[in-house]
Amino acid sequence: MKALNPGIAGLGTTIFETMSRLATEHGAVNLGQGFPEGLEPPGLVAAAISAFASVGNQYPPMPGLPALRRAAAEHDSRFYGLDLDWRTEVLVTSGATEALAATFLALIEPGDEVIVLEPAYDSYLPMIRRAGGVPRIVRLAAPAWSLPRRELAAAFGPRTKFLLLNSPHNPLGKVFTDDELGFVAELLARHDAYAVCDEVYEHIVLDGTHRPLMTFPGMRDRCIRIGSAGKTFSVTGWKVGIVAACPRLLGPVTKAHQYLAFSTPPALQAAVAEGLGWPNAYFTGLADTLRQRKALLSEGLAEGGFRVLPSDGTYFIVADYATLSDLPPMEFCAWLVREAGVAAVPLSAFSETPTADPLVRFCFAKTEATLAEAARRLKPLAS
Ligand code: PMP
Ligand code: GLN
After folding, report:
1. Of 55, 125, 267, 336, which has the most beta carbons under 10 Å away?
2. 178-229, pLDDT tens digit by residue?
3. What ligand has the least distance to the C-alpha of 117?
4. For residue 293, what is the domain's CATH number?
5. Which one, of 227, 187, 193, 203, lies nearest residue 84 by Cα?
6. Closest approach atom of ligand 2 to CA 34
7. Domain housing 58
């Protein structure tokens, strides 16, 4: 029979799904796949339940409910001083994943180069390639994961269409500094390139502050800013994404969205619209809680013999297991789930460039009880 598309048919199952399945099989504490436990705001869930009756269950407007687009524009004004026209500069998608795919389809012409920093979130490279893009990969290096300015500058050229910038960064937990963002902004302007800014962890900054690249001089019309209610409200299963960009960029992304998902469940959109209007205390409270959880897991990992690398945001900690095992990262994770009953994700899964660094990612967005149980299971590893 005829071959299928090799770029898609040849892909493996995502590491998140694989590790979650393994965790279930072994009754392990699942700190692999990044999803929060016990953090869903009851008010948000109640708002969705009531919206199922009041807003209805049919197709909402294709670009998103006006209430949510307005709330997203107000949110961006409140937190970042951005001045977005909700009618022409805000789009609701079915998760950031759909937003990314729609953006790639809308921006990339076959042969365009796209700069991606590795380690990178798993959906970027396959979808960039399927859209016809040619990835130019620039590696970040442990332990500070600083922007490699020389290599980054060298990756830009006349075919560069955009840079994919994820900050706060999954899996590294790195928040790019103003100085690094300023450097990126200069490169984009010099090479007439765009930036696709994956900012889904914008409110999960535990040290420092998040500044969207879009707020930097000259960047307003070069950036596509992507957020996710899944992260901001700890409801990853909802898949409500938000895209902000100038009309020239958002127009084509909206065209792609109309044939990818077309719309997003209206009751969930209505609830997110309500949540985005909550006082600042909700947003700082989320970061405060996660800061405590990170401290708990860091302590547990250190007691288990891991060396925790510094990080500033997201749900994740990267830890070095060199003193515990010589196994390569994937084998170590399989061993950890079997022998210790704790699931993690190998950092190597976020890179196409082979890497044997003994680094794994743990998710700390869990209840205190779950983290205490993980710590209890990890402790014997050190002895
Ligand atoms: N980008 C990053 C960096 C992520 O970690 C995730 C998911 N967790 C996504 C995008 C996808 O977000 P969503 O669940 O809203 O599709
Ligand atoms: N973003 C989540 C993580 O990094 C997983 C999302 C998914 O499973 N697709 O773990």
Report:
1. 336
2. 999 999 999 999 999 999 999 999 999 999 999 999 999 999 999 999 999 9
3. 1
4. 3.90.1150.10
5. 227
6. 10
7. 42-280
